Amino acid sequence: MTRPVHYLDHNATAPIRPEAAEAVMQALRDGGNPSSVHALGRRARMVVEDAREAVAALVNARPEQVIFTSGGTEADALALRGCGRPRAVASAVEHSAVLRGHPDVAVCPVTPDGVLDLAALETLLAEAQADGQVVVSVMLANNETGVVQPVKEAARLAHAHGALVHCDAVQGPGRIFTDVHALRVDLLSLSAHKIGGPPGVGALVATDPVAVQPLFAGGQERGKRAGTENVPGLAGFAAAARVVAAGWREEAARLATLRDRLEAGIRARQPAAVIWGAGAARLPNTTCVGLPGVTAQTQLMALDLAGVAVSAGAACSSGKVGPSHVLLAMGAGEAQAREAIRVSLGWTTTEGDVDAFLAAWAPLAARAAA
Amino acid sequence: MTTAVLPDAPDVAALDLDIAPSRPPAETRVVVAMSGGVDSSVTAALLAERGYDVVGITMQLYDHGAAIARANACCAGKDIHDARRVAAAIGIPHYVVDYEGTFLGDVMEKFADSYVSGETPVPCVLCNQTVKFRDLLTAARDLGAVALATGHYVRRQRGADGRSELWRGADPAKDQSYFLFATTREQLDFVRFPLGGLSKDQTRALAHRYALPTADKAESQDICFVPDGDYARVVEKLRPGATRPGDIVHVDGTVLGRHEGIIHYTVGQRRGLDIGGTADRLYVVRVEATTNRVIVGPREALGRESFRIRDLNWIGEGTAPDAAGVRCVVKIRNSFRPAAATVLSAGEGAAEVRLDEPVHGVAPGQACVLYDGDRVLGGGWIVRDRTA
Question: Which of B60, B84, B142 sits opposite A302 (nearest CB)?
Fold first, then answer.
């Protein structure tokens, strides 16, 4: 069954950029294990180290600070478990990879706009006797609402209490300024497929990589991450990182214009629609919209049948859609947390896609309980 | 293959699927409630073959981890997987919707409360009435569907007055009208039962003809959330502490023994009455929640000539049975041989059922469904009265 698809789910995964696809294919054809001594191995090694430079440049890190992983989730796990701190403090709106990425996580609340509550963080740090004991994890921007978190301020507080700081920044590059030094974090997670690279590749950027303990033994990545490197994936990651680094400011401005068109259209069609986190600084590509009285699962089905791809809250593997833990943390009721969908734009998105969404969403909006 | 023992697949082209005759099928969206069983699989395949814009939806109703996994009970995790495979095989979009919250409140807890109050509930009716024909039907409308189709063996027919009527399935062995008596006229206008005129064997033959992954799947007989049949365990889990031991008392007042909780007893039941030394065969005559007693007696004590029903759904002539009474046949449980009776209105949403001959095993909480031949006139829930 082929239907035209208006893909507005870039925060789940971005369509692969042609440059990245080509780089993946080339590396697949070339083959080679970077640990091999022969010429093929040396060529594969070049691909890996080239990717390290490209990814480091994307977030203003040094290449030796980049540890490649199988993706954002492994980067989060490596950061939280590998940093040697027995306790973690994470914001309530973190991705489950973080909330479940450490055996002992204390959850820090957010404001109704979805922003980390810094006063609450300070209290938690003081109570936790954090010095040398705690790693604080705060995402750069939330995947569901797009709300940008006060990472730098959180890092300053955390460091003052002797805690380490991890930032899940997978939604950052290409949308907002993402700089590991400006953020003043110790550990930063990245994912290739969120920026138009291939899935199954990510990176942990560690300002002091020597302090990171590997999740399992093997020796690659200077002993920090075992397993033969995903060379084609890294080639694609590098290609996507270079495209993003070169043109992200213009792209972000373009996305913001599309997002404003989307949100104006939403408000015009249903004034009672709730745009979550609208009062906070947000990513230019993400709109989380709640429609009173219409469940997210109904909206997802109706939009999908109209060829518009979006997502909602927490979709489990069965395909059922539960309430969003992010919106619950922002004070939404159980029903409200089941009525919101996420529309996320990206490099493929056109005005036509936005208008197609609005056209397909209008009948649902008309039915909403105002 | 078991195809050899099945009859030829029926002539599909001759089947009146009764969807929306005035519209081209390709522009007619139909939502099919797909359980993952063979009946709803064939329903979806039939409609897809006719060219309708078919959307399959499977309801996630309860946590499978909590229920004991068993291959042939409906709504288990495997069934969602099966439904998805069937949808992919016939090339239709398929979704899983989460109705766990409403299913818990509207079906499972009511089931437990009914047992705790000394009744014998029929949760499948509640499920059809709530999650299926209220919530799923609403979702189907929201998706722009003109109809919601299910794999039930009942028929929908147009009456002389143009209104939709509910009729028994053509295959008496598979007729599911007992579980659908609460379907309202408004719901009947929107729901469709494409298999109502078929036999189960014909459905299986069609499943083979369409090469559906579920063609040889075993029938599910259980209450889906009680896959092992141990309903008492489910009741105790939902309403902890609501059951306690009490007396088993003969209708003559003699205390005969003890029971482990009234939820284990149903009116008409003989099996499991652990009473020694009585010469007569004894049956459960009454289950008393207020005194926590199970009343037993000889078979003669079971006979009832009339009883009342509540929450009457009337889809016969007029808006309620008329004062003079309507002649009908009734079923007081799914496996019951219909008995002749007269039904009379008895105030708001209630009716009195007067049987021509006394019947045995009239259990409060069970549905009483009223028929005029093969046509369903409606039904209601059997109410306990002073003597039962």
Answer: B142
